[in-house]
User: Which sequence fits this backbone?
């Protein structure tokens, strides 16, 4: 009996400690997010982005409360093609008679959720696979990088169009396809970062004491790539929202959902411009613009915080480049020089140090005549040491 | 005298090689032979020097003594326990009394960690300390290495190279190790702080009776602080033993060349500067026979044929060279 009780107690304490660990992890993540928001808030453009995103998120979450009508409810439809009035702030749509202002607010839901969900899935996939490839190495690395190579040459957007034809038009398909093809750039960049950090002496020191692989990943690697992850997620989300609007406009979005792209498409096809209903085009346009703009601001602000030297130009081009996976590598390439200057990520390979190189050089490339074992430059330094020692 | 003492670390015929990436497929696998057939003993409380050119396998050898480098063959003993025969768990326990400080103080401290987090990391990994205990230990340790407890919440970027190295030393000593590997601990630092850091290391050694494995390019420093030394060339031991004996009487041509390069302007020094001819051989295809063949100014015909064995020419002074040892051994026999 006693032993069973003892086991129970042991079990309980184990569970408690696991729970504690999970709690601490959650707290750490929250802390990270909070510090990230604080950093963004100090940055002018970042603050603009944050405010707009907060507004949009508020609209999306409380859409049923804010919006005067429910565009999904067929009974709440009014006469088709009304002009703006107090009843219908932005009029009603020409094709269905839904309230445009309400559609605008409900549209934030589809746009943001698609963008954010895809962005998050890509962030998780990209970081997991990137860390696995970089940290575990070996055949895991080989397999993942081969997959990346293959996926990189497949153009995403045409594929999405084909897939929607095959699998039907739904948000799940869009998220799936974009996520399945969008993680490659992030994974590559994270892999290269991880390989740098993995060789850093502070990781070696921790491993020497017996730190587990998980510890190294959580405490050393993930924090080092977290800012990059956030930046990438913001830019990816912006890109996905544009792509989703484009797809909906082409009639390849989710036909049931109210989305800004579909509003645009309906306005266009019903000839809103002919009737002079400019508001029915402007409203979804502004919605798309605000969402993409704010996410882009956050991503670009993040990039400037990460790497103050990348300040030149900040445009949509970057978002599309980012979707094409090239952009991240550029950011990181420039970041690497920067941090090497500061010495933060200098790798520990001894042969990389000036001294090592000098010694190697005088050994390897010396002409076959007389070669001193140590370079003469070294010698004079040694004498100084000797005096000072 | 050494013979009666028990070594803290003992290496028996240790060899380590790294596979080289093939240039083209189906090529025969090639290896860099970083460490070949090294035997040595490190005694408790001493500072053991390890010198040699860059790339000759010093760091690799140091890693093997820590049990973090897999060996191809040979045995490693730490306090009579065989590291090479342990499983992961036992190794982890054994490593608790070993630590390391690094050449590059920049990459040895995580720039995202505060000083407190850096120094307390070993405590947290080992576990079983409360936050208050850890803060107190870290504060004391900071004072020991010449910083103040108030530096605890600052970040590595606030410190100079020498101070960073002090933080690295504090982290290495927080678990009170018996054995500390110093892999060129001052060579990345400004010359003006070399002496301070070396003095700090010596003071800490006196206080805590730590055994040092001290890797250096700098023979002057080795002469000053080490009690015994091992001269390496391309993964093999050239000369090994008591520092005073080796410096007073460098027997191996390679050691002589090293010394003459450094004490060139010594007025008292009787040696002419020995200049080496030839190129450093490739570690992928080490020459047959003595590793120093082709560059050795005193080369004999038989040097190309076989490996010179490591022989004791006087008490605690070993040399691997055909010019020495064997001749005496032959005349003895
Ligand atoms: N992980 C590794 N993989 C492949 N080769 C390696 C590895 N580590 C070391 N080597 C090779 O083994 C040899 C010895 O390297 P090591 O780092 O031990 O030299 P070292 O004497 O410490 O040099 P330095 O004075 O520059 O620190 C070198 O030729 C190096 O290229
Ligand atoms: S064995 Fe021969 S080649 Fe090697 S160091 Fe001695 S004399 Fe020179
Ligand atoms: Mg080294």
Assistant:
């Amino acid at each position: 009996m006693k032993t069973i009780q003892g086991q129970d107690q042991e079990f309980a304490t184990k569970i408690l400690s696991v729970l504690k660990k999970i709690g601490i992890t959650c707290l750490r993540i929250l802390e990270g997010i909070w510090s990230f928001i604080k950093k963004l808030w100090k940055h002018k453009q970042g603050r603009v982005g944050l405010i707009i995103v907060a507004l949009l998120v508020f609209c999306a979450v409380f859409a049923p409360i804010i919006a005067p009508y429910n565009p999904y409810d067929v009974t709440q439809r009014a006469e088709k093609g009304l002009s703006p009035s107090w009843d219908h702030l932005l009029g009603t749509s020409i094709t269905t008679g839904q309230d445009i202002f309400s559609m605008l607010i409900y549209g934030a839901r589809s746009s943001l959720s698609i963008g954010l969900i895809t962005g998050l899935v890509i962030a998780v996939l990209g970081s997991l696979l990137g860390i696995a490839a970089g940290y575990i190495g070996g055949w895991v690395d080989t397999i993942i990088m081969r997959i990346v190579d293959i996926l990189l040459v497949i153009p995403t957007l045409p594929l999405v169009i084909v897939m929607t034809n095959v699998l039907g038009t739904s948000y799940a398909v869009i998220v799936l396809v974009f996520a399945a093809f969008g993680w490659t750039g992030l994974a590559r960049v994270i892999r290269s970062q991880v390989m740098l950090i993995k060789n850093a002496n502070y990781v070696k020191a921790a491993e020497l004491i017996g730190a587990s692989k998980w510890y190294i990943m959580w405490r050393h690697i993930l924090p080092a790539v977290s800012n990059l992850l956030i930046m990438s997620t913001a830019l990816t989300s912006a890109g996905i929202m544009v792509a989703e609007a484009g797809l909906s406009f082409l009639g390849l979005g989710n036909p049931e959902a109210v989305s800004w792209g579909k509003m645009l498409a309906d306005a266009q096809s019903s000839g809103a411009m002919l009737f002079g209903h400019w508001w029915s085009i402007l409203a979804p346009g502004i919605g798309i613009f605000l969402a993409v703009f704010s996410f882009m601001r956050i991503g670009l602000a993040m990039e400037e915080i990460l790497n103050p030297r990348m300040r030149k130009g900040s445009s949509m081009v970057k978002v599309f480049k980012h979707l094409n996976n090239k952009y991240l590598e550029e950011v990181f390439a420039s970041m690497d020089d920067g941090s090497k200057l500061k010495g933060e990520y200098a790798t520990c390979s001894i042969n990389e140090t000036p001294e090592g190189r000098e010694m190697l050089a005088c050994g390897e490339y010396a002409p076959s005549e007389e070669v001193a074992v140590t370079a003469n430059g070294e010698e004079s330094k040694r004498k100084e040491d000797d005096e000072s020692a | 005298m050494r013979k009666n003492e028990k070594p803290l670390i003992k290496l028996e015929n240790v060899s380590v090689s790294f596979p080289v990436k093939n240039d083209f497929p189906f090529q025969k696998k090639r290896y860099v032979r970083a460490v070949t057939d090294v035997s040595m003993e490190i005694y408790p409380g001493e500072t053991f020097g390890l010198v040699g050119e860059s790339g000759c396998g010093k760091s690799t050898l140091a890693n093997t003594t820590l049990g973090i480098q897999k060996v191809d063959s040979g045995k490693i003993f730490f306090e009579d326990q065989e590291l090479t025969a342990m499983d992961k768990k036992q190794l982890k326990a054994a490593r608790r009394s070993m630590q390391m400080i690094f050449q590059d103080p920049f990459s040895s401290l995580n720039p995202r960690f505060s000083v407190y987090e850096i120094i307390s990391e070993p405590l947290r990994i080992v576990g079983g300390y409360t936050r208050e205990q850890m803060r107190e230990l870290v504060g004391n340790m900071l004072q020991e290495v010449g910083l103040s407890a108030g530096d605890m919440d600052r970040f590595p970027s606030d410190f100079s190279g020498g101070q960073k190295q002090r933080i690295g030393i504090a982290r290495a000593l927080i678990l009170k190790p018996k054995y500390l590997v110093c892999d060129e601990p001052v060579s990345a630092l400004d010359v003006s702080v070399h002496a301070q850091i070396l003095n700090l290391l010596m003071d800490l050694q006196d206080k805590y009776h730590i055994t040092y494995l001290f890797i250096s390019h700098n023979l002057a420093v080795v002469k000053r602080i080490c009690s015994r030394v091992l001269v390496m060339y391309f993964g093999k031991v050239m000369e090994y033993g008591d520092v005073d004996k080796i410096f007073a009487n460098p027997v191996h041509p390679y050691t002589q060349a090293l010394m003459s390069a450094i004490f060139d302007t010594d007025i008292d020094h009787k040696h002419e500067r020995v200049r080496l001819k030839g190129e450093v051989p490739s570690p992928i295809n080490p020459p047959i026979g003595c590793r120093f063949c082709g560059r050795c100014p005193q080369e004999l015909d038989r040097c190309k044929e076989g490996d010179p064995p490591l022989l004791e020419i006087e008490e605690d002074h070993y040399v691997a060279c055909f010019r020495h040892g064997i001749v005496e051994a032959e005349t003895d026999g």
